[in-house]
């Protein structure tokens, strides 16, 4: 059994759904005093898109493939899609009638580079890293210069 090498905590937020949104990421290397934080904000997006984009961007930050990664998310949408295998069924069916296809395709590309396990955590429950991700996501959603979520189709 392999032990986790990296923990990625993620959160997404949208003020209005759709509305301005952002994501926050806290990455910690297990057994090392090494931690990084990332966030970004978008003009018009949804909460689910930001939750998923946070995971994608966290995985993209990993420099070498084949790492043992545990992703902590308070998003049932993201956690259940992976742990219950839904996303793999959606992929087999060409993502017909699915939302956020662009992000799910990007997710699967990053997901397959590593050994990723998901752990759902209850949001707004005094979990320090989740609270930090939430704060980063909200701050990012309120930035003066927001990016365009090019894949969002309202």
Structural descriptors:
alpha/beta, five-stranded mixed β-sheet, 28% strand, globular
> Helix/strand/pairing class, anyone?
alpha/beta
Q: Rough shape?
A: globular
The fraction of residues assigned to DSSP E strands is: 25-35%
The level of helicity is 25-40%
**Largest pleated sheet:** 5 strands, mixed
What is the gyration radius calculated from CA atoms?
A: 15 Å
Care to give the gist of this entry?
By secondary structure, the chain is an alpha/beta fold.
Topology of this structure?
Elements: E1 6-14, E2 19-29, E3 35-45, H1 47-60, E4 68-73, H2 76-83, H3 86-92, H4 101-111, E5 115-120, H5 128-141
Parallel strand pairs: 1-4, 4-5
Antiparallel strand pairs: 1-2, 2-3
Helix pairs in contact: 1-4
Folded structure, characterized:
The protein is of the alpha/beta class and 154 residues long. It has helices at residues 47-60, 76-83, 86-92, 101-111, 128-141; strands at residues 6-14, 19-29, 35-45, 68-73, 115-120. Helix content is 35%, strand content 28%. Strands 3-2-1-4-5 form a 5-stranded mixed β-sheet. The radius of gyration is 15 Å and the shape is globular. 36% of the residues are buried. The model has no long low-confidence stretch (mean pLDDT 96).
């Amino acid at each position: 059994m392999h032990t986790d090498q990296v923990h990625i905590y993620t959160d997404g937020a949208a003020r209005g759904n759709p509305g301005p949104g952002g994501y926050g990421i806290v990455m910690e290397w297990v057994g090392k005093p090494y931690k990084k934080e990332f966030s970004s904000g978008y003009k018009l997006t949804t909460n689910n898109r930001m939750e998923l984009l946070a995971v994608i961007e966290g995985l993209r930050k990993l420099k070498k493939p084949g790492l043992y990664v545990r992703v902590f998310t308070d998003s049932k949408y993201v956690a259940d899609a992976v742990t219950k295998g839904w996303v793999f069924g959606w992929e087999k069916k060409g993502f017909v009638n699915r939302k956020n296809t662009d992000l799910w395709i990007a997710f699967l590309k990053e997901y397959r580079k590593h050994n990723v396990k998901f752990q759902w955590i209850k949001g707004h429950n005094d979990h320090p890293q989740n609270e930090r991700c939430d704060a980063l996501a909200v701050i990012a959603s309120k930035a003066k210069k927001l990016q365009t979520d090019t894949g969002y189709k309202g």
